[in-house]
Amino acid sequence: MTKMRPQFDADLKSLQEMIIELAMKTKKAVMKSMDAFRTENIELALEVIDEDERINKLEKEINELILVIITRQQPVAVDLRRNLTAIKIAHDLERVADYAVNIAKSTIRIRSRQENLPIENIEKMHALGLDMLSKAVDAYRTEDLQAAKEIGEIDDQVDELYGVTVQTLMSSIADSPEHVSNVMQMAFVCRYLERIADYATNIAENIYYLVKGKYYLLNQ
């Protein structure tokens, strides 16, 4: 068993590096999707959709490595938690990337966005979501519970912005019923950003599980 530990540690290091790579690719997808939305850039939106396949492939590779580690090393206690946490975090990051794809698709569906809609609030939600993802990566890398706690606090801000913004969007339909399709797509974008924040919070909760061995709900 002692002889196997160096290989086990090397596998765990590779696993962490792959998770961080997945997080970086996912964060880039979210940034690019919002750049496409902001500038109404269809080509950029299509790039987000096309590049999602790479993210899916990387998640699959992570899961395969975890299976090898568990089968070969049969880890217990914190080492087992480290692998179980990696599975969940990889899944959450892949779901975030899926929401980036959804934002890109909404961008393609929107036609001639109206100037009086609350784009500023959507930008704020996006910025907060990116901050949460950055903190999640740092918290995972260093097992920093304080950074994980901050993610839950930021999620409350996103939820508040989401409620206000969607209400504003729905109210605008009465004044401009001909734009209902565009307004609904913008409401979907708000929803996708809110879900991205939720998945970042899930990652933070999994970091608590990794360190403490029990789950804490950070957004309740």
Automatic annotation (TrEMBL):
Ordered alphabetically, the record's keywords are: Coiled coil, Cytoplasm, Phosphate transport, Transport
Query: Which residues lie in coiled coils?
Result: 41-68
UniProt subcellular location = Cytoplasm
GO CC, sorted alphabetically, is: cytoplasm
Q: Which InterPro entries match?
A: PhoU (IPR028366), PhoU-like_sf (IPR038078), PhoU_dom (IPR026022)
Q: Where's the PhoU domain?
A: 19-106, 122-207
Show the Pfam families listed in the entry.
PhoU (PF01895)
Which GO terms are recorded in the biological process aspect for this UniProt protein? intracellular phosphate ion homeostasis; negative regulation of phosphate metabolic process; phosphate ion transport
The record's note on quaternary structure and interaction partners says:
Homodimer.
Biological function? Plays a role in the regulation of phosphate uptake.
Which family, according to the similarity comment? Belongs to the PhoU family.
The protein here is known as Phosphate-specific transport system accessory protein PhoU
Native source species: Gottfriedia solisilvae
